[in-house]
Structure formats: structure tokens, C-alpha cells
Amino acid sequence: MNTRTALAASALIAVGLISLTGCSAYDSIVHKQATSTYEDAQAFGDAAVDAEWIPQDSTEITVRTSTIEDAAEAVILLTSGSELPDDCAEVERQSAPAWVLDDAPDPYKAKTVFACGDWSVMTTGDGWFGWTPNSDEERAASAG
Q1: Which of 20, 28, 79, 131 is the most buried (most CB within 10 A)?
Q2: pLDDT score, position 18
Q3: What pLDDT score was predicted for residue 32?
Q4: 3-state per-residue secondary structure call for the chain
Q5: Cross-strand bridge partners of residue 33
Q6: What is the pTM for the complete model shown?
Q7: Residues 91 and 65 sit within 8 Å (Cβ to Cβ)
């Protein structure tokens, strides 16, 4: 077996192993992100993401976080008929998320967002899309 064939075989084996372990393992290794879903706010309560702005009636919660230790980046997409807490203040959007989620609105089209502490949150029409970290200016404008 020549060197070229050996390299090609190794590459095929690596691709095969990655495909066998699934998309989540691939995302974790290559893109340094992990995506989790939760049926409702009660199930989300066990998540390792601090997002106090999430309404109690939230369902269909999707969370994407970094797999890098101590990284702050996260995005959340959820369905809810409730308003955000009173300590969320509407401000001019000055930040954007590290990642996008399928079915999430385009954050660059938003002129304003709600600053909820370290999170910026925008409406989706039937729920909310939020990301952290936000900008210093957004965080300072938040009452929380």
C-alpha cells in the first residue's frame, strides 16, 4: 500500500467514524457547540444555562452552547405567549448571537432588542430568541 492510498483510507475511516457518532458529536468536536432541546420551562430548569428571562409557559426550547470550558456564548429559541420580565429593557440592538438556530429570526434585522441582564432577546412572533453575551451598552441599559 503506498502513502497516498494509506492517507485516503485514513481519511475515509475518520469520516466514517464521525458520521457514526452523529451530528451532535461532530458539532461538538468541529464547531465547538452543543445543541439541546427541552419540552418546557420545567425541563429547562435542569439546564446548565442561566437565563432567568425565560417565561414559565415556554415550550419547544432549543439551546445551543459552546463546548469550550467557561465560554459564555449561548443562544435560546423558544415558544411562549408571555411577555418578558419587567427587568428586561427595550434598547437599540448593538450585539448579535454567536450562532443561529433553524427558525430563529435574523438578529441583524432587529433595530431593538430587550436587554435582560447578560442576554439580548428579540421576539419571534410566537416566542423569543435570545443570546449571550450581549454588548456592554445593552447590559448597562438593562434594569436587571
Answers
A1: 131
A2: 43
A3: 74
A4: CCHHHHHHHHHHHHHHHHHHHCHHHHHHHHHCEEEEEEEEHHHHCCCCCCCCCCCCCCEEEEEEEECCCCCCCEEEEEECCCCCCCCCEEEECCCCCCCCCCCCCCHHHCCEEEEECCEEEEECCCEEEEEECCCHHHHHHCCC
A5: 66
A6: 0.78
A7: no
